Amino acid sequence: MARTAVLGLPRMGADRELKHALESHWAGRTSEADLLATARTVRAAGWRRACAAGIDAIPSGDHSLYDHVLDTAWALGAVPARFGELDRDGLAGYFTLARGAADVRPLEMTKWFDTNYHYLVPELAPGQAFSPRADHWLDQLREADEIGIATRPVVLGPLSFLALSKGLDRPLDALDALVGAYAELLGTIAAAGAAEIQLDEPCLALDRAPGELDAFAGAWPELRRAAAGARLCLTTYFAGLDAGGSLDRVAALDADELHLDLVRAPEQLAPALRELADRPTRLSLGVVDGRNVWATDLDAALDRVDAAVAALGADRVTIATSCSLLHVPHEAAREARIDPEVRRWLAFAAERLVELGVLAEAVAAPERRDELLADGRDAAGDRRRSARTNDPAVRARVGALEPDAYERDAPYARRRAAQRARLGLPELPTTTIGSFPQTEAIRAARRALRAGELSAADYQARMEAEIAHVIEAQERLGLDVLVHGEPERNDMVEYFGEQLAGFAFSEHGWVQSYGSRCVKPPILYGDVSRPAPMTVRWWTYAQSLTDRPVKGMLTGPVTILQWSFVRDDQPRAETCAQVALAIQDEVLDLERAGAAAIQVDEAALREGVPLRRAEREEYLRWAVDCFRLTTAPVRADTQVHTHMCYSAFNDIMAHIARLDADVLSIEASRSDMEVLEAFATAGYDNEVGPGIYDIHSPRVPSVEEIERLLELAEAHIPRERLWVNPDCGLKTRGWEEALPALEHMMEAARRRRAALTAGV
Description:
single chain; alpha/beta; TIM Barrel; eight-stranded parallel sheet; 20 strands; 43% helix; 11% strand; globular
């Protein structure tokens, strides 16, 4: 009969137990043994839940103390020389790679494909040597066995590991050496008793050159031999394999099992069934969405499962999640604060496990399908018919948009002159990205407000005191363009979603973003509009405290879309346009209140780019249009800023230019300003603020380090168009880290201005 599988489980714990344990350990309050004990408890809870749901293939080794790509690099001994000799028997060296140390910056961080999860980028060198150790997988395999649960170890595959790394001009040149290390790992895991091993190769589903597929096919037999005694399950996800290309090549490998993401790419199924008809490979069907929270359309999923069973037989079919459940929260049933009507439409990780069981039971007992699917069908019908999802006024406003709605009245050169006259900024103007440290006092006040223990007036007074503190600190530092610090904001997306129509919010719906950092994405279920101003009163108060310009701070429509769980019942472009018009209303209110600079962050625009090249132009067209829609009506002398997170820009520079932001700030410090090469090559004409110190690490960079990065930046961007700012917002840092770093940033800027005056 068909079996069930889940490709990965949430890591942080239902109540973020691992997050709290990590931060306590990093702060020196608890020991390494305490941290590891919490991690074991969290893992065991996930395994027991999957076992209780009847899942046949339960993952292990997917659980990480920071990041699974880092786990792989650490296990392979791929430690860059700049870190020196790190002890691989403890956690201190592992966390040094992730978080840096006083004298060394951490590994670069970037987005995991098109998700909001961040992975650490392995750094490889020509002639890279590997020294594999399988402890990470053996320990978790043993832990699960001790509680009576058989698990399937999950290993990131060699092709994807190389493709996701940096440092080699031709990454696949290292494949031969790497495959030998992988063979040792797989052999050790198989010898430890694993009945099967899940080898994740998501990069196979991207645009792969024939030579890359040849290299992987050439390496496969050695991997297969090494895992002898264990079934080797090859998994792809986030995109689809190409019929007549990568699908044919991958199917011909005769893996014990091949997993396809049929949520993202359902068109793979028919050609896959043809390719596998005469082969022994089991087909794993990713029909339950591992990345969104809407209850599965069980009838549609069963159509795909039925087709596979008819072609291959039930014993060659696995019913699975599309990808790891790392990207969804734990349990929708806990969310008492979500309206019951909306909650009925949702499925988090716990509900996904139940859905897998329902699908398997429906395949085994087709005569019971109507009974098994009745609740799901009712909920889906209610959602389609609900007035909550359809606002005629919002739809009419989007439908009435004309081409000039996306255009600013003046070209950039004229705007730049008007803004310089209004703002009076020096060369190398300094600013920050927006947020300042979210202290425990701020979080406690927010909790007290939610609990009814603090009045709205008292909460406002406390937040105004925090804003006054932030303004005073920035003036003392000498920053040129200030921010209010965002103490009132829980999250850059959640804060806005809470004030927009069409959103719901979970209480426990946390997902990992990186390390111990978790986010609680809003649930965008209906048409979006802005009932009232969201930020104007906070900006007005901040500006009243200083003569220096204070930026209005907003989150852009694409980022709100990307960092929410978005409705799947209409095109994303249409939803994004609705959000853009709501943010435009706020932009215009800020301008009317007197804001001379307004930042509309599009931190996630790059991560939303489709993984396959053929789909990118359409996305970039509507995504950039939606950003332009938010800012098009402002005056020429109002300076529009935007910020973008970890991004490789080379292949989308034309679209970055089309954003036409007056000032674009980007994260650049971990890459040593490499990202700016794309701007220089493309002849980008607008102003740029490359991040010159990394806020994701607790280390405080020296003045000399920041000055060196500024010099590198000046080699790519003319000084008259260069801004000085951190990589990102400061909310995750403490004041004891943020203030010294900003002092060093300001001193480095003063030195560069002096060098400029001296003609250096």
